[in-house]
Amino acid sequence: MVALPSYNQEAQPSQFEQLPAGTYTMKIVEAEVEDISKSEDKGGCLKLTWQVSGGQHDGQMTWQRLSLWAENFKSQKPGKSDEEVTQQARDIANQQFAAVREATVGVGKVVTDTDVLLHIPCLVTVGPQKKNPQYNEIKAVKPMNSGAASGTAGKAPAAANGGGSLPWKKSA
């Protein structure tokens, strides 16, 4: 048994509300690498915490998980191999990260540390997930000046770690 010396007995449970679909001024307030799955070896992802800046939903947050280091995905689609599905997940994550990178640090810039992505206002379009509409999904990320021509991005290169340690693996 654990003794509880004190706590606020008047506190009410918090209610988490999804953001309504729309475009918001948001900024990344936290970036971390975590396992894609807690129970299976599926590689790692970059988890971005986005926070609304201003307006009715000021301070509200949503999350984006980019499977940049996906491994061992199992195909649920006839005619697609496990490796094709895994590579497709990495390709989508790299395209999404390219949009984040260009909206925060600019076109053609190389990001080696997620700290450079933090606290930069962006225009973020949020909507319901296709498979789980009760959850939000980041649909698009654009720079605040997206009304101006910002150039077009080519396909993002696949992430490579150059044979170094895998960022989501725990050090022994």
Structural write-up:
This protein has one helix and five strands. With about 170 residues, it is α+β, with helices and mostly antiparallel strands. It has one domain. A five-stranded antiparallel sheet has the order 3-2-1-4-5, covered by helices on one side. A hairpin with a 7-residue loop joins strand 1 and strand 2. It is globular, with a radius of gyration of 19 Å. The two termini are about 35 Å apart.
β-strand percent reads 25-35%
Shape: globular
Low-pLDDT segments, ≥5 res: 148-164
Gap between N and C termini: 33 Å
Order of helices and strands: EEEHEE
Give a quick account of the main beta sheet: strands, pairing sense, barrel closure. Answer: 5 strands, antiparallel
Number of helices: 1
Whole-number average pLDDT? 85
Residue share in helix: 10-25%
User: Any idea what the radius of gyration is?
Assistant: 19 Å
Spatial strand order of the main sheet: 3-2-1-4-5
The tally of strands reads 5
Query: Which secondary-structure class do the elements indicate?
Result: alpha+beta
Protein name: DUF669 domain-containing protein
Region (Disordered): 144-172
Biased composition (Low complexity): 146-160
Pfam family, one: DUF669
Chain-wise SSE layout:
Blueprint: E1 22-35, E2 43-52, E3 61-70, H1 82-104, E4 122-128, E5 136-143
Antiparallel strand pairs: 1-2, 1-4, 2-3, 4-5
InterPro entries: DUF669
Region (Disordered): 144-172
Biased composition (Low complexity): 146-160
